[in-house]
């Protein structure tokens, strides 16, 4: 019990000291995740002065039933290694647990799961799960970083198609799963869906967290696809999708134009034509297949016109036009 208390204290202090930091790795020999006793919210607030710690923008999950529901969203964890970035005061303390302290945005998980058998990408997912309740300002940059690693099969994805169960503000979860024509459809929808089977599994009411955020929270699961739905490398997809959604309320042509410097502006119309897309389509009306075609054509232009990928329309970069002028060699 003393050990338990000390560990809880250490963990919580670490979480408070450096908000992004806790990574616990559990080997789940027991399929029924047994949760240790959780201190009451009043105790925590008193001991850790959570109420005064607004600057952390961190929302702890202390409600045992809610934690259990979040964990259940990950599916069957029997025999799995579970990497938890759950920054709840709760943590499962067992002899099969290792704790790493580091910034989750910088932590390299490539060699972390020593007991896990690597699987071929086309095989079933490996016995690793990543489960996390991170501060909202961390969870979105983190999923963007992890999507890149998924596309490059690095970090936790060097083990195969490692699954994720993560919390986001409800509307961020809605954007991630938004289908074609949905008004929530955005850059995040395409970035998530072209690489993963992504689902909102559960909504946790905001009031369950401490301190309570103003919004409810989505539990989102990600299972990397065997075949990405857009075949180009991540940096190409990221750029084309970002520019397409620059002007959400306008025709897709308007955003796509910003991919090209003035002297190559004709390529935008040509690209839409080759991709068989009506230039007056709105960004949220584009299917992932259409993005796939746009990305392939843009990628071929980048090969043809040196410097095109580096071109950024807001830079007053005197060399960009010069670089483009050398295209073709
Ligand atoms: C998230 O917010 C916390 C607290 O405001 C801040 O310390 C941290 O640097 C932020 N992180 C990012 C990646 O924006
Ligand atoms: C992570 O570690 C692996 C193996 O140790 C290494 O190959 C890889 O380059 C590292 N990734 C980053 C982003 O540092």
Automatic annotation (TrEMBL):
* Chief localisation class: mitochondrion
SMART domains, alphabetized:
rADc
Where, subcellularly, is it found? Answer: Mitochondrion
Q: Which GO terms describe its cellular component?
A: mitochondrial matrix
Question: Where in the numbering of this chain does the Ribosomal RNA adenine methylase transferase N-terminal domain appear?
Answer: 66-226
Indicate which residues the UniProt annotation says bind S-adenosyl-L-methionine.
Answer: 1, 103, 133
EC identifiers of the protein = 2.1.1.-
Q: Name one GO biological process term.
A: transcription initiation at mitochondrial promoter
For this protein, the record's Pfam families field holds: RrnaAD
Q: Name one GO molecular function term.
A: mitochondrial transcription factor activity
Q: Does the keyword Membrane apply?
A: yes
Instruction: State the similarity comment.
Output: Belongs to the class I-like SAM-binding methyltransferase superfamily. rRNA adenine N(6)-methyltransferase family.
Name used for this protein in its record? rRNA adenine N(6)-methyltransferase
From the broadest rank down, the organism's phylogenetic lineage runs:
Eukaryota, Metazoa, Spiralia, Lophotrochozoa, Bryozoa
């Amino acid at each position: 019990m003393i050990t338990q208390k000390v560990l809880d204290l250490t963990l919580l202090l670490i979480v408070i000291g450096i908000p992004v930091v806790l990574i616990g790795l559990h080997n789940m020999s027991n399929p029924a995740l047994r949760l240790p006793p959780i201190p009451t919210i009043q105790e925590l607030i008193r001991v850790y002065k959570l109420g005064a710690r607004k600057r952390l923008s961190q929302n702890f999950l202390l409600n045992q039933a809610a934690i259990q529901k979040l964990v259940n969203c990950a599916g069957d964890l029997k025999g799995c290694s579970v990497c938890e970035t759950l920054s709840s005061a709760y943590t499962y303390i067992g002899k099969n647990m290792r704790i790493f302290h580091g910034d989750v945005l910088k932590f390299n998980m490539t060699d972390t799961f020593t007991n896990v058998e690597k699987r071929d990408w086309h095989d079933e997912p490996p016995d690793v799960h990543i489960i996390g309740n991170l501060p909202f300002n961390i969870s979105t940059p983190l999923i963007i970083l992890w999507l890149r690693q998924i596309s490059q099969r690095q970090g936790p994805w060097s083990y195969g198609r490692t699954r994720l169960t993560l919390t986001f503000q409800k509307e961020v979860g809605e954007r991630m799963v938004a289908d074609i024509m949905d008004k929530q459809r955005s850059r995040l929808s395409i970035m998530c869906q072209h690489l993963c089977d992504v689902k909102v599994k559960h909504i946790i009411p905001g009031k369950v967290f401490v301190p309570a955020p103003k919004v409810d929270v989505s539990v989102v699961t990600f299972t990397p696809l065997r075949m990405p739905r857009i075949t180009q490398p991540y940096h190409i997809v990221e750029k084309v999708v970002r520019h397409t959604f620059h002007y959400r309320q306008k025709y897709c042509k308007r955003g796509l134009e910003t991919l090209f410097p003035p002297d190559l502006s004709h390529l935008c119309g040509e690209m839409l034509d080759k991709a068989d897309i009506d230039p007056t389509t709105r960004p949220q009306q584009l299917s992932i297949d259409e993005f796939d075609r746009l990305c392939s054509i843009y990628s071929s232009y980048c090969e043809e016109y040196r410097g095109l990928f580096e071109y950024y329309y807001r830079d007053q970069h005197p060399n960009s036009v010069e670089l483009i002028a050398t295209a073709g060699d």
